[in-house]
Amino acid sequence: MSTVNIKIDGREVAVKEGEYILNAARANDIFIPAICYLTRCSPTLACRLCLVEADGKQVYACNAKVKEGMEITVDTPNILEERRAIMEVYDVNHPLQCGVCDKSGECELQNYTLELGVDSQSYMIPDTKREVKNWSSVLHYDAGLCIVCERCTTVCKDMIGDAALTTVKRGGEALDKGFKETMPKDAYAMWNKLQKSVIAPSNGTEYTNCSDCGECAAVCPVGALVSRDFQYKSNAWDLKRIPAVSAHSSDGFQIYYEVKPASIENRNEKIFRVTNEWNYVSLDGAARFAYDFENTDVTKDEAAFAKALEAFKNAQTVRFNSVITNEEALMLQTLKEKRGLKLYNPEVRAFQKFLGYYQKASGNRFWTTDNDAIMKKSDFVIALGSALRNDAPGMKYAFNNVQKLNKGAGLYFHPIADTLIPSFGKNVECFTHKPGLEEAALYLVLDLFADKEKLPEEVKEYLASFKTTETKTIKEKVMKDVTETVVDEETGESKEVTKKVPEMVDKEITVEKNGLVDLLGGNSSTFTDTFEKMMKKKESFSMMIGEDFYYHDKAENLAKLIALIEETSEIDVVMAPPKANALGVALICDLDDEAEGYTIGYNEIGDFRLSALGDGDLDMPAMNQQEGTFTNISKRVVPTNAAVEYGGYELNDLVSELIEEGESLTVDWTVRLPASKGFRAIEFDALPNGYSNDGTENRGYLLKTSNRKAKTPSVEKFDEHAALEGEIVYRCNPARQFSDFSDKAHEIFEPFGLYASAEKAEALGEKVEVVFGNGSIVVDVIADEKMTGDITKLSDFKSAQNVYELFGPARYQTVTMRKV
Amino acid sequence: MGLEQFKNRNVGTQNYKMLDLGQSPETGMGKFKQVLDRTFKGELLVGLWVTMREMINALFKGQMHTVKYPFEKLPISPRYRAIHDMLRLLESGHYRCIGCGLCEKICISNCITMDTRYDENQRKEVSEYTINFGRCIFCGYCAEVCPELAIVHGPRYETASEQRASFSLFEDMLTPIDKLNLQQEYDGFGAVSPNADENIKKTPLAY
Amino acid sequence: METTLVQNLPEVTAAGVIIKAILILAVIAAIAGFGTFIERKVLAFMQRRLGPMHVGPYGLLQLVADGIKLFTKEDIVPQNANSLIFKIAPSITAATAFIALAAVPVFPDFTIPEWVPLLGGVFVPSIAADLNIGILFVLGMMAAGLYGPLLAGMAQANKWGIIGAARTAIQFLSYEVVTGLSILAPIMLVGSLSFVDFNNAQAGGISHWLIWQQPVAFVLFLIAGFAETNRTPFDLLEHEAEVVSGYATEYSGMRWGMFFIGEYANMITISIIAAVVFLGGYSEVGIGWLTIILKVGFFFFLMLWVRAAWPHVRPDQLMWLCWKVLMPIAVINIVITGIVMMV
């Protein structure tokens, strides 16, 4: 991308073309005051503090784009006066309860009031009573403290996609007209707006219907939005920040565990909340609220340890999941190599296989893009095989952000219709296809985006075979000139007047119909036009692949199709590893298809259970109690740190006893991660962990990619009749639930159960027995307002329920429902 | 500065009175004379008179100095920094502490700890508060920083106890509700300065 | 008139003497104890303090409390002490003090009323043993009392005790001289060593008191008396700033208490001698018992008063004062008295 040179306060900086002045300044460490602007969201223009002078003209830095040779002055006397007036206005009637406010000490209102030297107040207006409200099980809104900067609504709309918040009328008194003359212009305008509005759930009720990610509370500059659990629990300055990685979704979000001693009696450190660098990363609900899953009060139980060693000596299989660090995965792999243990991980195995197919077909070691890159440049995203709202929060944010900020368009293919996805933007087209037709979706993508020249002949022919043309009569509105004679009533003169009058005429057109569109549940007659509109001015295309594909009968063909799409079109691909550190496990461990004999379960069921959940035969540290690295969706190896004390044995202690090549610390394994898979031999303590001012992710290191050109993959045709029919259950967790660990956290309320659309839930009743081919499970039925259709979602986050076993190698299963 | 100057430097404005000790007599006769002088000058009687006078003052003129300590106590300076008191609001009787945590933050010996929570009235409630008096150095920073004049140094300087914990909980320091009318405003460290009103800038208020 | 007083008295019986002895022992011991209370009180008042206040009204029962304490304290004999002498020493002090009192008129005489069973009609004399050499006996007894502190200090195997003992020897021996010489002049005037004679010699009002004839002797006797009773400003024997507690360093409990009682008994003895020899004794007709109490009380109070007012002297000053000042003056006084009597 081309750069332009600008001067800010005399400093020459080179910035990306089309960048906002504010972002340019932030990236170059130049301070321009701003409250309402969020780096990765659209400008709100609510605070007007970012007023700067650019080439002699006053502009708002948050929505004025840089131009070559622009000279910017941040402070001029006039601007300083404006800013001071704005801060004074923000302070009008703001409660002086900083003493009890949770934000005190990290409050932007406090900071800017001080920064802009507000030491007296010139303005006044009667206050309006504003009620404190609980918007959801996690959100607490104190309207009295709110300065209506709209960061919450902005981030919810532009980043999260829920658009659950909006501004509503406050009912405040109108401003005295006298102020208009005496006040600086921008301050008056800002005040005028502020006095009229307040934030409320956008659905018109008292409660938000959103994913409870808490990002709105994170971005709130004042104490208006605080998590209900954290409210009044601790002062910001008492908390120690431990940089870590979210242990739930495969996004591997950077988080800070904020800890301090639990209480007066209990001086052990406890996690009070999770915060994030919200300008650079947005968290999902699990990352933010599922933090207290530590294994508490553990001591070194030597008897249990001896039993565990004995169990390992007898064991034939270790069963584990993806909530495990790279180092632990490497330990298990080493055990496999030295002691011949089988490694069984149904969560990751399918993904590992799929990755293998993809590598073989495409020649790439990894997918070609990541969510961050998509947000930065893509303007067309295609999501396949992923229940975006539940599976992959990072992908959901990226999909939404592209619609909002990049004027993008999107295609969403999934068997379960979700009412949230179309709301991301008007150029989002959803295909609710039958499960089993994922190949057809990829063929449609090929048809729509591939450079036909590059496609193999048989594919071209196969695609063409779906096309039909038909003539259609449509009514078209045509403007016709009609001449009338009008008599003027007063004068009696008659005049000829010519008017344009619309008239409907029949017209015959030839329409090309694409059978694939219809097959996938779309409307081929309108799709062509829609797609044409979507494709306008689009330059950068991305495709998101989800977990459905890994558990597909035809996974190999799907992988080949993806490789073919990459080869023949401009589309970049990102794949979502199923959970947590699935990618790391997939790369490091040589997984087996079946468990066999005496099994050791690590956070999973087994004959001998190692567990960080506190219910096993030997306690293990949970993810917030150990150091190590994760491999996330961005193909990045990121370090996480221990936030809570752990007094028991670790996997490393066991491994050191069992093999000779042990290490003294878990993180000593970091350098031993296999270079053949792209890992680098960097000491754990040398791994950076942060973001730079321009948003560059500076955490850990990127896995080394490799690209050996493979020959064009030969893809198979799909079988239209493979589509599943009947009562179908989809293995899918509710948002914010990923594993037993998220379930253990006290701020995660989503229950285990069968999630269904409202009508379906009513039809099923309160409780139902889901009968699979190899067993059955009795679960509660829970209505999900955002789902439509007949397919239901069965949670899998409780390992004890062994849902993976019921589903076998697929994510969709036909079942029988029995009322209980 | 030379040693001589250093010795003669003006270290203050005190006017010391030097005693004229004179010379001790060397000869036997001189000593005898000194004895006679001292004997007949009546100096010995002056000593007797002084003690007698003090006795009379003490017994009959009410100048007895003794304070019967546990029963009588001398008033202490308002700036004395003894065991902390937690004050209540005079009108409502509710404790003043809002749980802002500034005392906890400023405490240089890290002896203040508090637990707070969101209470039923949507307010911040101090659920537990404690000062570790084994560590407290009574510096008074907590009283000074307190924005509500809630934590102050009380007059309770008798800190002998079977357990230090006897002083350290919120309830122990809080003015008993039935003694609210006896609650004294604290004038020491952290109290509002007498001319505080003059230093406050008025803010326009619409109502 | 002088003779009738004595001659009209009933016969002194053994029973009367025994009763008197018991009376002296009981009363003086009690007064000695009470003296400690008075001393503490007077010193306190002079320093504008209250003194003992909490045991009994105005602290009156403090001496009971102290007594209980002394009696119940553990009796400690130091490991290397000569335990026999260590144990005996306090009784020497107490015994000599009380023996001295045998020859001193303590109360006026009286006869036990007839209706009292058993003892009815027994005459109790004012002096337990009305020796005609009463003064000599008293002075001799008090001089013998020096063995108490001396032996105590030497027996206790303690350096401070040794120093205390040494000081005892020099101080008591030296001032014995001054006491004797100073009282010699009044004896020359009266011509008797009996206290009764002294008393009678001064009967006839204040103008007959020997103090007017022998002011120098009075002052010298007083000074020497302070030294003999180990009082400030001559309390070198156990001055805590110099020798911890001197001869009493290792003593505690009742043994220590006996030194104390002895000291106070001696104070009373000296007071009585001073009152009888120089201030007319109990010679006032009818109120003799009251005047003697007042006079003794005054001397006792004087000792406390002096303690409150004056610092103590150094040992060298003490010796210098004794041998170079007081003794010569006493001798000169005797000579002058003799000359005056001759003339």
TrEMBL record, chain C:
Parts of the chain that traverse the membrane: 12-38, 84-107, 127-152, 173-196, 208-227, 264-281, 287-306, 318-342
InterPro entries listed in its UniProt record: NADH_UbQ_OxRdtase_su1/FPO, NADH_UbQ_OxRdtase_su1_CS
A GO molecular function held by the record: NADH dehydrogenase activity
Keywords recorded for this protein, A-Z: Membrane, Oxidoreductase, Transmembrane, Transmembrane helix, Ubiquinone
Compartment(s) of residence: Membrane
Main location group: membrane
Any one biological process term the GO annotation gives: aerobic respiration
PANTHER family: NADH DEHYDROGENASE SUBUNIT 1 (PTHR11432), NADH-UBIQUINONE OXIDOREDUCTASE CHAIN 1 (PTHR11432:SF3)
Protein name: NADH-ubiquinone oxidoreductase chain H
